[in-house]
Predict the structure of Alpha/Beta hydrolase protein.
Amino acid sequence: MAEMSTNLTHHEVTYTYSDNYHKKIHYLASGPATGPLIIFVHGWPGSAITWKWQLEFFAARGFRAIAPDMPGYGRSTARHVASDYSQESLVEGAMMALLAHTGRTAAIWVGHDWGAGVTSSVATQHPETVRALVNLCVPFGTIERGWAGFLPLVNRERYPAAEYEYGQWDYMKKFEEDFEDTVAWFERDIPGFLKLAMQPTPRPPEDHDRVEPMMSRVRRAGWLFGSEKPPGVDEVAGEPLGSGILFDTFVGDVLATGIWPGAAYYLNHERNAAYNGGDEKRKQLTMPVLFVHAAWDLVCDTVTSRLAEPMRAACCDLTEETIEAGHAVHLEQPDVLNAAVLRFLAGKLEGR
């Protein structure tokens, strides 16, 4: 496909769901209107701009590439209503409205972190809308199904249940048990937290399978990262990933909504289980699926844990790639990731 301009444009979708409140989804778009549609769905914390390098890459190759500010982020509606951020509300309300706004009936869906939970929910509930599914770090069949979808898959050699009941997901339980105070911790210095969160992941030691990530002991410590507040921007020495317009826009997006709405994604495990769980929903996925393992991701550990097992059992046409990066694989290794996704799509969708 010919190279072309990749300027990002802004768009807005309005929709109602459940309580008839008029909500909006803001999204960035690039590439030809008639190109194959690829939708990038961010996680926590995130916003549409964190997919900048993917939007530009795929638009330049003829795709219609879009990325929404998910509900609770950036320019999208960000109410302090926890149920707005259940998988049901996100999919049946926001994602179906977004897809309809493009004038298409199906897309290539790419999700990262909680965004992978959303893309997995779309594939579960509306498989006809998914030409191909690409999940980064969080496999299909896990986080979108509530606690039962991922807690039993913790590596108990690393996290014995007697000492680490919730394994590396201890921070999620912290959100459930102490939500307002946990949100307040982040909001003491949002730019400082985001600069820390956006630091490149260093290569772990050779025995990293025995490294205990700090997210496994949050409730015991009482504070995240062992401190009463996030570090200030000037206290974080390294340059953040996407330093410049990407990072600055991202910080502005999070400051616009605060932490509460995005953090409320962690308050819906029961609702998500009711929506996606149960044997009747454990259908096989027949569309092509690509899963990208981030080799250095100690929280969403798919290399030494059993977290990828439900995906492998459910996907009829599964491709797996491993990239040497931490959790923010799309920001740490954008060229490697983009090439892997493009190679997968060329092999699976050529001529379809």
